[in-house]
Structure prediction request, 347 residues.
Amino acid sequence: MPGLVDCHTHLMEYATAEIHHTQGQAQEMAAISNLLTALQAGIVATGEHHLGHLVLSMPMAQYKKIRDMLPMASAIAYGCCWLGFEPKVLTSATWPGRSETRDTLTDRDYELMAEASEFPGENIFMNYTCANVPLAAAPNAGTVTYEESQLRHIIELFHKKGKKIGAHIEGDEAARRFLACGGDVIHHGHGISPETGAIMAKQKIPLVLTPAAGTSKRPTSPEEALAFYRQGIFLALASDSYIYPHPQADWISLPKDRLSGPADFLKVSGPVLRYFVENGVKKSDALRLITVNPRQLLHPEEGCAVLKPGCPADMILCSRLPAIETESLEDILLVITCGQIQVDRQI
Ligand SMILES: [Zn+2]
Prediction:
């Protein structure tokens, strides 16, 4: 089957410090280590997010240099991030390694993010985020960030550069504002109502669900995900690695006090995909949410997944269907990318 694709991850930036406690040049080693963990889990492409970091100061271009060395089809999105601490804190990919407590971003910052972004990831945060700190430490988490006029202006800056824009979104107010101002892709979308879902389906706005965590709100449940699917919304599932599973994500079997990462992708997506299959969705259609759908978001130019000369043919060989029939990585026997076997569990 096609290789797994996790289109919302932070493996090269935030997760390097969180998992490996690295800074400086060692960040590159940590980034590669995290991506290797993903590849071993059958993930042949990730959607990386570079949002700027309070400490890590690796320049924007370096992320692409590292990615280009690796046998994965990862894509990188650049953005800025509002953290819901008191005071609120802003970071930006355009000035990594520092933070501001007020909005100092210029049009040029947004233009640089747009120019460098390879897919519409969480380029902007429509809500202040709690990131990986306890909710009590981020009292502003969930509050909507951008007024309509500023949002419309930022979206226009992306569109003028010929780029789509994605956003970190929770709740109807933020989602409706983003849709009204011409936004293109919603990430997380926790707490979005069926009425807003209907608008998304009509406007053909893709939704990247992160069923384990990602915002201050309870993530989208398997039942709510199926309802969005039946509304006709283009869906992808992602891990948002590395992240602590949300306390209310009770369909996730992972421990809530341990950061979950790409090796847990099957456990993050399994409950949603099994619920889809139990309710009549074909297994091959359910699997699209962790393979060809996210790949299309990252690489729309590739067209559909076919086996023929010149096509990527990134695939995995499994003894049981991942996420639906098994959550064990032992069942992913081979991982093939770039015309080579990269991982072989049979030897
Ligand atoms: Zn994220």
The mean pLDDT is 96. Residues 4-344 form a domain with the TIM Barrel fold (CATH 3.20.20.140). Residues 26-40 form the longest helix (15 residues). The CA atoms of residues 37 and 329 lie 11 Å apart.
